[in-house]
Amino acid sequence: MSAHRLNQAGSKDIRSIKVKLGVHNVQQEQGQERLVKQAFLHPNYDEEYNNDIMLLKLEEIAVFTDHVRPIGLPLTKDEEVPKDCLVSGWGHTIRNVKQGSPVLQDLNVTLDENQLCSDNHQVCSSGLNGPAQGDSGDPLVCNGVAYGVVSTKTRNNTYIYMHIPDFLD
């Protein structure tokens, strides 16, 4: 999860945040709901989106089903990230409409070399299409492995993801 996303929630008690598992359409499916027991914010997170990553510990364990499965993580910090990836989330789909999509959206993105992301534990994609407002904390998946977490977007349409392999410890 993105630390920035938790900050957007304001002073909300962490134990009142619900996580939904195994849901594609939040208006038509229940899935598994779990309360968050504890949030582990990266100790060096700052408002400039450095180290914009956290782990959530749930009150109850997830029950694995056809729709709820663990996702792979990179094996080492030095593992090369594939260039063709998928980002998914329930962020805004219409500009200037402050409401997320009820249906999980996904988009293919191509990671590129970008000076913004060269040494900040980040990877980038760019272009007109990418994660939207409300997608912070959503996964960047490449070849079935979670390589990134959506962080932010710059004014020049560069999308920034926290590079999970740098945070494996």
Automatic annotation (TrEMBL):
CDD domains: Tryp_SPc (cd00190). The keyword Signal applies. The keyword Disulfide bond applies. Keywords: Disulfide bond, Signal, Zymogen. One of its GO terms (biological process) is proteolysis. Gene3D superfamilies: Trypsin-like serine proteases (2.40.10.10). It comes from the Eukaryota. Residues 1-169 form the Peptidase S1 domain. SUPFAM superfamilies: Trypsin-like serine proteases. One of its GO terms (molecular function) is serine-type endopeptidase activity. Pfam families: Trypsin (PF00089). PANTHER family: GRANZYME B (PTHR24271:SF81), KALLIKREIN-RELATED (PTHR24271). This is Kallikrein 1-related peptidase b9-like. It comes from Oncorhynchus kisutch. The gene is LOC109888624.
